[in-house]
């Protein structure tokens, strides 16, 4: 049984500031290539790692153009919800988003804790589970990465979180493969969110895979040297995984403006430093409102209920703000 896995498409109609090409057309080309890859490899299921859309409410004209391509994949696409797909990075807002609409239409299917079971030609069973992004995914609890029950020959788990092989900087919360490798029963853990990716890592008999985002939109100069890739997973009596580069992807220098990337990268660094200086609570992570609220709640010893309500109100406010933006267009 063959699976195609790719992640972080960030579909949008407008051009990111650092792109020299037409991002919209480039992304369509990439998805068309992935459709061909699925056909040529006789892929049974497509798995997507989250952030299909760059924002929850992109224009219907853009969505329509992409659905035309996506519909050519074997459907539904099995996926988890990324932070960009929803309002306030809160998966419970999905019903108000474009991705929620695609789920209702049967174009995507959300993975969850309750496993989807598929069977290979040689009658091996595979369970597929998934965990959506949420604000505390890389907090102390690593549950979103850990499969606790396995009643099949093979287990695949998909999630959208900051899973890394090596420690990152202190400003960002992350999870190390080492933290979860001995705890999860999944034979294959597929992740999105960290756009640079880390390829295929094998810890004992368990695979951890992040081929990196298919779109290069992060404000980091290192993106210039990365060619967007996808993974093909072949499971029969054993597991075979390969990561392949998108043939249509151009050299980083041709699509990314190095100077603008440098400016954006420096802006992000300065902004991070600035916020670190002005915070009295100290450990403000990622500069995300959700994390700031968590920090304050923890510092002030506020209960989970209050934290949850604050987060929901922010999601609602973001929804209103984006609606106003749309009205202005
Ligand atoms: Mn992303």
Rg for CA atoms: 20 Å
CATH superfamily annotation of the largest domain: Metallo-dependent phosphatases
Query: Which strand order do you get reading across the main beta sheet?
Result: 4-3-2-1-13-14
Total of DSSP H or I helical runs spanning 4+ residues: 8
Q: Averaged pLDDT, please?
A: 91
Q: Compounds present?
A: manganese (II) ion
Shape: globular
From the N-terminal CA to the C-terminal CA, the straight-line distance is: 46 Å
User: How does CATH name the architecture of the largest domain?
Assistant: 4-Layer Sandwich
Indicate the percent of residues in helices: 25-40%
Count of beta strands:
14
Whole-number tally of structural domains: 2
